[in-house]
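INPUT
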Amino acid sequence: MPIDWFPLWLSLRVAVIATLIAMTVGVWLAYVLANHEFRGKAILAAAVHLALLLPPTVIGFYVLVLLGRTTPLGRLYESVFGVPLLFTWQAAVLAALLYTLPLLVDSARAAFEGVGARYGRAALSLGASEWSVFWRVILPLARRPILAAGVLAFARSLGDFGITIMIAGNLPGATQTMPVAIYSAVESGNGAAARALVAVISALVFGALYLATRLGRKRAAA
Amino acid sequence: MIEARIRKALPGAAALDLEFRVSEGLTVLYGPNGAGKTPTLNAIAGFVKPDEGRILLGDQIVFDSGSRIHVPARARRCGYLPPADALFPHMTLRENLVFSAACRRLPRLERHRKVSEIIERFHLSEAAGRRPREISESERLRGSVARAVVGQPRVLLADDPARGLDLALRVEAGRLLRQVQAEFGIPVVLATQDLDQCFDLAEEMLVLRGGRLLQQAAPREIFDQPSSVEVARLLGVYNLLPAEIKALDPARNVSRLRLEQMELAGPYFPGRMRGDQVTVCMRPDELLARPAGGKPGPNQLAVQLVRTAERPSAVRLEFTGGILADVPRSEYEQRKHLREWVVEFPADRLRVL
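OUTPUT
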């Protein structure tokens, strides 16, 4: 039986998009959590981690309830993009995003906290705006660990199974990402496909881990 | 001019609760770890928000809990030097200074003229093109101060900027702060644990402990008349001996004190009563120590030498009863075999707390 490589390309596309979105939202969230005191901070931090601890099926269920075709949010999405969200590859992006965001926020927050309060304070004392403190001082100083966090987030977003199957389903050639395809291959006794996909995903994740470690180490040496 | 009344609960330390007013010039906050020096500076700079109080910088209210004013740090124009240098490591020294100038919205041309001028004034021309980790500690120190000065702050808050550096650099840090104050007319508030630095720099000194202000005056005044036993202990240079006031005579400006087995004559102590339990407070350099000979005279106490300690300028003798006295080295050399001494408490130097 020839191996269908569609899940690999889909997973890569989903992971790249999910990582880009996660980087935008997550880095900002992490910066706020690391540098600001505000009412409800603990609640926000807990909410971010909810997705880390809740069973993926539960998160998937929430998304189904919130974004189904008959819900206000679901209708809003459909009216903007013209197609429903659930059970499309875009839903797989959302699944990967929910799966990877807590990890990214955690590591990005650690990266920001590693910079040390004195640089931010020095910049503020010079009269820098919050914007330029972030873009010109803190982000450049945390660049390497933030990149490492992004690489790890990418690796993780390749790996979601539970949320994906709940909200994107298992439609071969449409929403079947690698973890889902591996499950299907094993179920249907297609050992060759399962082995090939397992090998590819393992190599990708290992490569990402190696890169992330190197990014982390170089900064420590500098 | 800074006027501050600050109350703030601090995790793991005594709450900050103090009120002070300092004028232009160089002010030093002195106190041990946990005294509240850093939280005080942070509150003035706007990095933390006090629970209660009011802070005035010049004629601007930057914090007032009553009317819910809290001007953000970036709008306070307080220069800030943290304990470790905070030059941005990813920028060259010149870029650091330009960043500072840009933050103050100086016009572009003015910006570069100003930065170049400051680089000259702090002798940083050679280091300007390099990053902080490629330049010497002394250059980093000057660079930090220069970057703060470029922004024309209305006060420079220095949180022990030379902590942990060697003596030469600490001296240089002091010289720089004086330069900032004298040449650029920027008032400086320095937090330090270094008593020498207080004397060297401070026009006004605030002694802090446990989040409270114990005394505020010129260093010389504090040294001559610490306001309490606590302050005297913090300065760490006093003989503190419990005594009782036996007699007071304002008319003749005399008093008599009972100190263990001896009577001391002193000046009149305003505000004290007969029978008060007080602490006699004498610096080791004020006590006169002589070899014993005959019966001790007035204000003299016979003591035995317990140990000696070398000091940079003198030899410190420790006698029975924990009494410390400094004698010049030459004087001590001639008498070092002696064990029996007398110490005299000069009546005019006698002070009680």
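end of record. The radius of gyration of chain B is 25 Å.
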